[in-house]
Amino acid sequence: MTGFAAIIAQTIRLSLAGGGALVGLVFFLALVAIIPFGVGPDLNLLARIGPAILWIGVLLASLLGLDRLFGADNEDGSLDLLILSGEPLILIVLGRALGHWVATGLPLIIAAPVLGLMLNLQPIALLAVMATLLAGTPAVSLIGAVGAALTVGLARGGMLIAVLVLPLVIPVLIFGVSATQGAVSDPEPFRAPFLLLCALTCAALVAGPVAGAAALKAALD
Amino acid sequence: MTVSHSIQETADAANYPAIRLAAVDLDCVRGDRTVFAGLCFVLERGQLMAAVGPNGSGKSSLLRLIAGLLRPAGGSIGLSVEDPDSDPGTDTDGGLVHYLGHLDGLKRQMSVAENLRFWRQLYGGERPVSLDHVCMIAGVGHLADVPVAILSAGQRRRVGLARLLISPRPLWLLDEPLSALDADGTELLGQLMARHLAAGGAIVAATHQDLPIAPDRTIRIEGGRGMLVAAEGASQ
Amino acid sequence: MALLTRLANPSVFLGYSGRILPFAAAAAAVCMAVGLYLAFFVAPADYQQGDSVRIMFVHVPSAWLAMFCYSLMAISALGTLVWRHPLADVSARAAAPIGAAFTFLALVTGSVWGKPMWGTWWVWDARLTSVLVLFLMYLGLIALWRAIDEPARAARIAAILILIGFVNIPIIKFSVEWWNTLHQPASVLRLDGPTIHSSILWPLLVMAVAFTLTFLTLHLAAMRAEIYRRRVRAAQLRAASPEYNRASANGPEAEAYS
After folding, report:
1. Is the pLDDT of residue B233 over 50?
2. C253 and B223 in contact by Cβ < 8 A?
3. Which of A107, A90, A88 is nearest to A24 (CA)?
4. Number of H helices, E strands in chain C
């Protein structure tokens, strides 16, 4: 258990030290900032599509640091030592994914309502965005970790991760945004999509590390 | 000589279980290329085996096969603990292997102490080793708080040696352990290896240089074939 | 199962497939000709859609094969990971571009059909969107294969991704349908009306058989090409290896596909 905690702590430490987490945050801000230039400064329109913009922004910003998640370990030899430590490979993948979530996902969730204000979101929508992001972004990190494991050691790994991961996180995006819409506008449900979102995260929590460990093994051999 | 005295202490603290490493008709294929085939050897506690051969002959692959990082294309390689119950004082905690590859496994952004602390948490057993002590033995005591990014290659190598001491594991796999080490470092490596063997550990070292202590056996890998060479100082 | 074991030898596979291939190609051509004739001259034009309904005879079999091909790849992936069958990876790798092509065909014909039906080239209808995601997954897989040099390593990594996709596709399909019912566009005219009349059903079935035969022909040919490609690679590696000049033993891998 100390080993697992150490992996999470080291992942967070490295993300913060390398500035990766900060770059993700700035990217998120830049992404949200360019949307009004594209769709126009109509506050009603922005309020309507705001939750979706925030969700897509968080999704894309979460992908940024993924190529370093195992790529750095592979380059400096840590991956071999991690595997030989006796810590189960599944826990290593889980630890890296959770560390990525804490270092990259959490700051984005905290920043989301601030950016939401700029998009003219109502307080209830801000709360809903935060709640759905909190429930959904762990799944993004876990699925992303699988993508990172699949592409470890590849020259164009970073681009590939995005291409591989984006189709897989479509359900997370759908239920995240629908739950947010459900909280804002009355006839649409909140509970059902929110629970489905939680279910997706739970499924990713179980299946992600298993798939990631298998991918790491295949990539190393 | 406080340093060699400390080495003595560390080695005495470790009391390894009897291990036995056996390779039978081991084949190694990397990518689409057969690196070597038909390798056989046995290594027991207290023994040092050197793997020698030209570049690309598969010395590193042999170490990775022993570590279990690669799967053999044919034959078998097995590391077994004989009577694990005979010595209740031993502490291996899951893993039996320390691997010192040509990459050092150190995070550049973190300090020497942080790096070693991380590996101690992952490799460490029930009796934590003092990091200060280990750093001092490896001759990097004064560098504990320095980020790895600014260390020289030789200093990083010494940190790698310190990593071998943070938890007792009976089998050391050393890939070109002498590279980047100066004369003092070579002497230190020799002392560490000697203590490890005396405590009942075993070492496999891939090298193209002379090791500081004479190997019990030497395996020469060349032209896709491995040959066991009856070596100088054979203990049997 | 015994046949599968025998086919593990690529030479045996090349022998069998070489004999089957002309017949498969001929059967596909005949079926396709009959199917196209039925589709264009026998099947009646729809009283609402007119002749544009005939696109269905290409669209529906393409969509069907897009899914069939992925299922085949998933079985091949299991073959790679579980049974380590040497041809499983060749099968999956050969199937991917063909599957992507059929998926693309389904998307394009769907779009062309949509123009007269819905008045727009693209509608974010649940089915079209699901097929689009499937297309993305095919492209991602192909990109992953191309990024890894060593066939053996690429085989296992791609197999894992295929299986992840296979588990995910139903989830994606479900979520897309959920999403679609939330944002139901008013203009969509659904095709799942009552039963299809037999005058349309028969040409459709013939076309489905023709497409399947075409797929099998292409797949066999692509597998053969993949095996030859690997032999060339093995020969190149042999030529590049230092042992070659010393005329010493070649490795098992170099001979695996010869």
Report:
1. no
2. no
3. A107
4. 9, 0
